[in-house]
Amino acid sequence: MLQKFCSGAGRPCQPTHTELLQADLAILSSNPLHDAADKKREEEEEYERKVRAAKRAARSGISVSKGEWQRNGYAQSDLLSTNGIVDQVERVHCSELTVEQFVERYERPRIPVVITGLCDGWRAGQAWRQPELLERYGEHKFKVGSDDDGYAVRMRLRHYLRYAADPAHGASDDSPLYIFDGTFAERRGSRGMRRDYEIPEFFREDLMRLAGDRRRPPHRWLVLGPARSGSGLHIDPLATSAWNALLAGRKRWALFPPGAPRSLVAPREPGLEREATSWFAKVYSRTRAPDWPSAAPVDIIQEAGETVVVPGGWWHAVLNLELAVAVTHNYCSSATFPRIWAHTHRGRPKMSARWLEALRRERPDLAAVADGMAARGCDREGTSSSSSSSSSSSSSSGSSSSSSSSNSETEQPPRKQPRTAGGGAAAPAVLGSLAAALPPTPPAAALLQSGAAALAAARV
Prior knowledge:
Elements: E1 4-5, E2 12-13, H1 17-29, H2 32-58, E3 91-93, H3 99-107, E4 113-116, H4 124-127, H5 130-137, E5 141-146, E6 152-156, H6 157-165, E7 179-181, E8 220-225, E9 230-234, E10 241-248, E11 250-256, H7 262-265, H8 276-282, H9 284-287, E12 298-303, E13 306-310, E14 315-320, E15 324-331, H10 337-347, H11 349-362, H12 364-376, H13 427-437, H14 442-458
Protein name: JmjC domain-containing protein
Pfam families: Cupin_8
Keywords: Chromatin regulator, Coiled coil, Dioxygenase, Iron, Metal-binding, Nucleus, Oxidoreductase, Transcription, Transcription regulation
């Protein structure tokens, strides 16, 4: 009760109207419920503002306010259904495979494979669940795309995870924003994540490290996104191979062998965007038609705990079937060096010069291979197999991709149009001979044989 005393004998007198209003405001401002409501409203406004800003920056050509992020209605379609999809790629447990066997069966002949058991024992299995991620990295900003000038678009993880489940945004967007962060292992707020997993023994050679961290292309990414996010069809840069370890969720992959015609598998046509959703909705069905004139796609449904290995030169598109968390690396090994060297020497001459200097010191045998290729002119034959997007996911989705990220999942970024590696004319013979030479692994042999036949028929 507001009480004041008039001058004189200390008699109380009535407060003015203004004084009563000031008193009411003072009571309201000190009310904990009022404070909480204000804070909640401010948080809601901040969240909405950040989400809309990220969307506008990552895909400036699509209106947020007009609902264009949901114009195709993919969230209400059967795009995520896996009915009728036959997973054709061989699976092998890591305990049943030596490094030498991996090289000879899969890496050297460029055969995709799914390796199980590699993630067992990784701290990331627990540390990268949503509650733990929010607790450790909720305030850290991860890359969700690139703006029109190539700069990273970032969101706080707590905002992003809320966005991913929001019916007004990520849960309904045709192609949601996608965390594809190629600097997570270097940035102060997230570098601890690098200690949550280890590079499997099959991929540890990593010859590009000899070029130096400042010169080598981006090579590792944290990949996190909801259903319908993903990577449009692409080939990973510089003919590198990639491994993608899925910690949580499910992913759908479609792969085409080296030499598959770009005009067929990645056509440029009106209405076809570069995001994964657009490719799976509009192109994939064509590849299953009886009159499809090239190799049919190789399908994979990747489950949590599985690691997909994509050899260099293979086209691939990736679609998240539910909220998925993965880590992916691109790499170069002794077995894949010649092809990667040819692409790097042509596409990254300054880097290749530094790389060759280091190889002369550390791997003179491979330096001799490079010198021999130069003498024969073989180091000028390739082209850069794919552009590395300015977004740090390796998911070559589309330049207007909301699923944009940046370099490779291998999912490669959506910002630049991928380019195919050379050698298309020899692809049927190469695939056929590889199939004939394979050890008794029927799925892989059949995969290559059918690809060789389809590519040969397409050129008749």
